[in-house]
Design goal:
Helix content: 40-55%
Strand content: 5-15%
Strand order of the largest sheet: 1-2
Low-confidence stretches: none
Largest sheet: 2 strands, parallel
Shape: globular
Number of helices: 4
Mean pLDDT: 84
Radius of gyration: 13 Å
Number of strands: 2
Length: about 80
């Protein structure tokens, strides 16, 4: 289910340290972002983030990146991240 038009979603994403709006420019530097040399796994279409957060909790030796097309859905995922640090 896609959430539509969440007011303020774009502003929150622009200011959030976990959101990379141009990830292609990060190629070769993810070890700096994560602060380690663990392998990186990508989830495309992460939705609200429950699955990727569970994976990350179970596999602390793997770095996870989630990609989401819709700002409103990503915004909800960021809210969940704040609720469950």
């Amino acid at each position: 289910m896609r959430l539509r038009n969440v007011p303020g979603a774009r502003e929150v994403m622009v200011e959030n340290e976990y959101v990379f709006t141009e990830p292609e420019g990060m190629k070769g530097t993810w070890h700096e972002v994560f602060g380690n040399d663990n392998p990186v796994r990508i989830e495309i279409g992460m939705g609200k983030g429950r699955f990727i957060m569970d994976l990350a909790a179970r596999n602390p030796d793997i770095n996870y990146l989630g990609m989401e097309r819709y700002e409103s859905v990503l915004y909800r995922g960021l809210q969940k991240l704040e609720e469950n640090p």
